[in-house]
UniProtKB/TrEMBL annotation:
The protein's name in its UniProt record: DUF1850 domain-containing protein
Superkingdom field: Bacteria
Chain ranges passing through the membrane: 14-33
Keywords: Membrane, Transmembrane, Transmembrane helix
Classification via InterPro entries: DUF1850
Species assigned in the record: Yanshouia hominis
Length: 177
């Protein structure tokens, strides 16, 4: 009734080669998807009222960016530096040239105050986590975003008087770095 199937030496050899090649292809396929379908991090600029996305900038954990503007009351430059993490934005430093509304007048024990050659006051090691950062783009002076070696005018990108939300987001998709 049942026939015993005999595997000759040649058939076993081809079978083992086929199994080996299949295993190698499976490993390469898994590695390809692991490397190319990992979540990518994006620094996203969005209109607070409408939710419209103005721009997204890809970054890796620990990258830095800054926003520079002229203070609306004391009319001196301010630069705020941020560290971009996977799930949050961290205020790292603030450089300013005179005291005014919203500018720090005291520092904590962990923070450092130093003075720049041009008379600026630099508070570093602020380490303040911000889940969502919001800026109001000025009508008189511009806000400049510095990220990935670029300088972006928020007035040109978002428009005057725009209320802009800055968030960090992760998306899964093919990475093309």
């Amino acid at each position: 009734m049942y026939q015993k199937i005999s595997w000759g030496r040649e058939n076993k050899k081809y079978f083992l080669i086929a199994v080996f090649v299949s295993a190698v292809l499976l490993c390469f396929t898994a590695l390809f998807f692991k490397l190319n379908l990992e979540p990518s991090c994006f620094f996203t600029l969005r209109n607070v009222e409408t939710g419209e996305v103005y721009a997204q900038y890809r970054y890796t954990e620990g990258d830095k960016c800054s926003i520079a503007f002229v203070h609306s009351i004391n009319k001196t430059p301010v630069t705020e530096g941020y560290i971009l993490c996977r799930d949050r934005i961290v205020l790292d430093y603030c450089l300013y040239y005179s005291f005014g509304a919203g500018v720090a007048t005291e520092i904590s024990r962990e923070q450092m105050l130093s003075y720049t050659n041009d008379g600026g006051m630099l508070i570093s090691n602020i380490n303040y986590e911000i889940p969502e950062l919001i800026y109001f783009v000025g009508t008189i002076s511009d806000h400049i975003l510095r990220i990935n070696g670029e300088e972006i005018s928020l007035r040109n990108l978002c428009g005057k008087s725009s209320k802009v939300s800055f968030t960090v987001e992760q998306k899964i998709g093919l990475n093309r770095r």
